[in-house]
Design brief:
Layout: H1 2-7, E1 11-13, E2 19-21, H2 25-47, H3 49-55, H4 65-86, H5 93-115, H6 126-148, E3 157-158, E4 161-162
Antiparallel strand pairs: 1-2, 3-4
Helix pairs in contact: 2-3, 2-4, 2-6, 4-5, 5-6
């Protein structure tokens, strides 16, 4: 149990001895790696739409490649969001939440497409690499925010909304 406490420990003291909420190093690293992965994958889709669509299991590239490239743009935007969240994961929890929802719902949609014959089963190998690996770190970051929401409201403030 002490390992879990260490993993979720976020309390630090500033120069005046006042305790403040700090993001753990593992959370910053996880978000930076997620950002890099999204940026690389999104650029791959934008620059090489035909090749990337085949990697996603399409039997042939979509006829409207610009729509597929739009998917790549959305993935790049997620990467930018994760990079922003990495500056302070506990403050930017809303970006992490959107990422968690995307990484949860994306595999459901992809599996649905496979079951209904819209894409090849080959696409399923991408789910663990692109989505499932991020569920645990994103969930742990959100758990940290939830556990610390009462003790450091100013650190968890997003505009006028406070996670309580």
């Amino acid at each position: 149990m002490s390992g879990a406490r260490t993993l979720l420990n976020t309390a630090t003291s500033d120069s005046s001895g006042k305790q403040k909420l700090a993001s753990p190093r593992w959370a910053v690293i996880a978000l930076l790696v997620a950002a890099l992965q999204c940026l690389l994958w999104g650029v791959f889709i934008i620059v090489w739409p035909e090749r990337s669509s085949l990697a996603y299991g399409f039997s042939q590239p979509p006829t409207d490649l610009f729509l597929w490239q739009g998917t790549g743009l959305v993935i790049v935007l997620f990467g930018i969001g994760y990079r922003i969240a990495a500056t302070n994961p506990l403050k930017h929890w809303n970006i992490v939440l959107i990422g968690f929802l995307g990484k949860s719902l994306g595999p459901i949609g992809m599996t649905w497409s496979v079951v209904h014959g819209r894409v090849s089963r080959r696409v399923l190998y991408l789910i663990p690499v692109n989505d499932l690996i991020w569920l645990i770190p994103f969930a742990l970051i959100l758990l940290l925010v939830y556990k610390n929401s009462g003790s450091a409201r100013n650190e968890v403030r997003v505009g006028s909304i406070v996670m309580a």
